[in-house]
Design a protein that fits this description.
The protein is of the alpha/beta class. The chain has 8 helices and 9 strands. Its EC number is 2.7.4.8.
Length: about 200
């Protein structure tokens, strides 16, 4: 019997590319996937549950985790820390579950440094024009912020070489189909199962 560990999948890409939409659709279809729960120092909102929505920590606790290298990545937004706990991810993988992380490009680069065995998927816009339309369509950003986001997106797209796979998000259904195929093919990779098969053969001999 092959005792297969889970795989960490990281979905990343520029702001406005539709990472959240694709992730939600994927989770509707693949219920056995585990979402990576983030740690945050922001206030717990009504209805949120510690350990399900987020792991809520104080600033001191969070900074202690940074010092102890217990985070796969972390960032600070509007005076609050957010990060991915290494212990939760490793425990969930050891239980045989795949873990899925949806994250910005800078965070993905930190994860690659701290957990290079992850599988990195870059979600690509059909074009920069389409990306601009999506950001403008949100109706939440000023003209200056839109231009900054587009410049940032161009820089992030140049970091594509750091990823294992690229999926163009021109259609959510098609993008999710491709990500499901990536998950399946990663589990069939020779190097993932060869060591386990060899151990079984040795045990039987």
């Amino acid at each position: 019997m092959i005792d297969e560990k889970g795989i960490l999948f990281i979905l990343s890409g520029p702001s406005g590319v539709g990472k959240g939409t694709v992730r939600k659709e994927l989770f509707k279809r693949k219920t056995e996937l585990k979402y990576s729960i983030s740690i945050t120092t922001r206030e717990q909102r009504p209805g949120e549950v510690d350990g399900i929505d987020y792991f809520f920590k104080t600033n001191e606790e969070f900074e202690s985790l940074i010092k102890q290298n217990k985070l796969l990545e972390h960032a600070k937004f509007v005076n609050n820390y957010y990060g991915t706990p290494r212990e939760y991810v490793e425990k969930t993988l050891a239980e045989g579950y795949d873990v899925f992380l949806e994250i910005e490009v800078q965070g993905a680069m930190q994860v690659k440094h701290n957990f290079p065995e992850g599988v990195f998927i870059f979600l690509f816009p059909p074009s920069l024009e389409e990306l601009k339309n999506r950001i403008v369509g949100r109706g939440t950003e000023t003209e200056d912020l839109i231009l900054n986001r587009l410049k940032e997106a161009r820089n992030e797209i140049e970091m594509m070489d750091a990823y294992d796979y690229v999926v163009v998000n021109d259609d959510v259904d098609k993008a999710v189909n491709k990500i499901q195929s990536i998950i399946q093919s990663e589990h069939c990779k020779r190097e993932r199962i060869a060591a386990q098969y060899k151990k079984i053969l040795e045990d039987e001999l």
